[in-house]
Every structure is written in structure tokens, then in C-alpha cells.
Amino acid sequence: MINEFGRLKRKMILQIIVILVIALIVGYFINFVFIDGILQAPFADVFMAFCENILQLDYYAARNAYNVLFQQNKPFWLAIGFILLLLIIFYIALSRFTRYFHQISTGITMLADESEKEIHLPAELDFLEKKLNDVKNKLEKRAKDAQEAEQRKNDLVVYLAHDIKTPLTSIIGYLSLLDEAKDMPVEQKEKYVAVTLEKSNRLEQLINEFFEITRFNLQSIILEKDLIPLNYMLMQVADEFYPLLAPKGQKAIVKIDEDITIYADGNKLARVFNNILKNAIAYSHPNSTIEISANNENNQTWISFINTGKTIPPEKLKMIFEKFYRLDLARSSQTGGAGLGLAISNEIVQAHGGTITATSSDEKTVFTVKLPNNS
Questions:
Q1: Domain 144-216 fold
Q2: Contact 305, 280 (CB under 8 A)
Q3: Closest among 243, 260, 263 to 252, alpha carbons compared
Q4: Overall pTM > 0.85
Q5: 70-74, 112-116, 129-133, 252-256: which is most confident
Q6: Residues 322-343: b if buried by 16+ CB within 10 A, e if exposed
Q7: Of the candidates 194, 193, 195, 197, which has an alpha carbon nearest to the alpha carbon of residue 205?
Q8: Residues 147-183: tens digit of each pLDDT
Q9: What CA–CA distance (Å, rounded) separates 250 from 268?
Q10: Would the N or C end of the chain have less CB density within 10 A of its end CB?
């Protein structure tokens, strides 16, 4: 910060020096021109004429007044002149200094008013100009991101509200049939009950997504850490997803060459792995294998999920961890949730002091979670 203000200090000191030099030149000019210089005689004549005509003094009294006031009190008049010059210097310096405050204030006002124009300050305040513009750009980006997230949330709420009508209409229809046809054959009744149960489960899933959307902005992540055997946790996560893997002929295998123990919040970290694996299952090819691996490197624990499926475009990959963003934008997608799973995972990993990233190329997508060993 001291170095940043150096240019401003140098300019202000230079300005003060220039003003002082001008003041000394002016003082010298007044002293040796009006009092002891070429204009001394005209000045004396004017003063004596003033005394004779206005004050009604005779020639000798006027000359004596001039000698007493000016010739015998040169130091006094020089002091008066120097004080006046110092006041002028102080005023000019203060005006220049307050001008900087005014320009900074104008920049802050533009910042507060969310002006689209760039903030411009004098060259000696270029460091402050850069900082104000950086803050302005960050605020604009945050506002834009918040607006886009809000719009995505609103779109999802509309989609979910629309999707809720479909299973609800089916449930009401099948229950009405069951209620009206008391003597319906058992096989047909069992079929209708099974369909109604399936639609009810779908309806529950959609309602849970509504709650998830509402809860996301209200939750605060509080970690309850403990020592966790990572090998066992990842194998347990893979086993729990067997019912989702089996229908598509998919498999999830865990490859870890060493026993790894991490210090973390087990429940929240399990949620991270569940979200990543659920996403991998949804977007993997049928009969493909999802590889889960972990290792220690550079005082960090690396956990990777590799799946084979459609390559994620770079522009979508950048947004994959943003809240309410869904890779599958189909309105009635069975695989897509509220678009919060990976966003929540990202926040949990960051709360542990780690990072979560994704890469995708040649139909292979890799999610990597990095956690510090002392997390």
C-alpha cells in the first residue's frame, strides 16, 4: 500500500515545491521591484499622492509616512507577504488534495449506482482505479450469476410444478377406476395399484426436489469431523447404488492400493460421493463401468470418479457446479434432479478446504475431489 501511494506522494510534493518556488519568486519580485527596485519611485509617488490628496497631508508628512511604513518596516511587509503566500499555497494544495477525494467519491458513486461505465481516476491513482474497477467487475459478475441462478431456479420450479401434474393426474385416475370398479379382476387391480405406486414415488421425488430448492439457500454447512476409513466409505457408497446400476447393466468398482484414512465429516462427504456417483450413473452408457479410485499425493487425498458416456461440452462443464444447473435440460427428465447435487457437493468440499473439478473428453468424464490430509 505504501508503494501504491508513492506516485501520488511524489506528485503532491512536486506540486508543493513548484508552488513554493513560485511564491519565493513572487516575494522576491515584490520586494525588489516595488520596495527597492525599478517601481520603487512610482510606488512612492502614488502612495505620497494618496496621502496628500486623500489624507490631506503635506509633502514632508507624506514622505515621512512612506519612510516609516515601508522603508523602515521592510521585514514586517515581507513577513505579511510571505504569510499571505503560504495561505495561498495551503489553499491551492488543499484544493488539489480534495479534488482527489472528489474523484474517488465519484468512482465510488458509480460503483454504488452500478454504472456500466469504467471508473477513471488520475494517473497517480491508477492503482485505486484498478481496484475499484476490479470490485465493479466482481459485483457485476456476482449480480449476473445470482440473476441467472434465480432464473434457473424459477424455470425449474415451473418445470417441476408442471411435472407434478402428470403423476398426480395418473394417481387420481387409477384410484378413481379402483374406486368405481369394485369387482375389477385381481390382475388388473394389481396392475393399477403398481402403476399408482410408481407414480406416487415419482411424485414424492418431485416434492423432495421442491424442498431441496427451498432448503439450499437456508442451510449452513457445519462440519462434524472424525477419522474415516476412505476405502470402506467408497466401497459402501458403490454397494448402495447397486439397485440403480443393475437395470442398465452398469458396474461401479473401487480401486485403492492402500488404506487411506481422512479427517472429515463422514455424513457430508458421503453426500458428496453419492451426488457424484448418481450423476455418473445417470450420464453413463449402458453396460459401462464406473471406476472409483483414491490415492495420497503432495499431502492431499485425491478421489476420482471416472465414467464413460456422452462428452460434456466445455461451456457446460464450466457451469456444472453452479446451483440449479442441469446438464440434461429436458423438462421431464427422469435422471435430472433440481440441479443442486453438484453445487452442494462443491460447497461441502470447499468447507473441508478442498476442491472438486470435472474434465470430459473422448466420452470419458472424470470428477476429482482433492482434500487436504489435515482437513
A1: Helix Hairpins (1.10.287)
A2: yes
A3: 243
A4: no
A5: 252-256
A6: bbbbbbeeeeeeeebbbbbbbb
A7: 197
A8: 877 776 676 666 566 667 767 877 888 888 888 888 8
A9: 25
A10: N
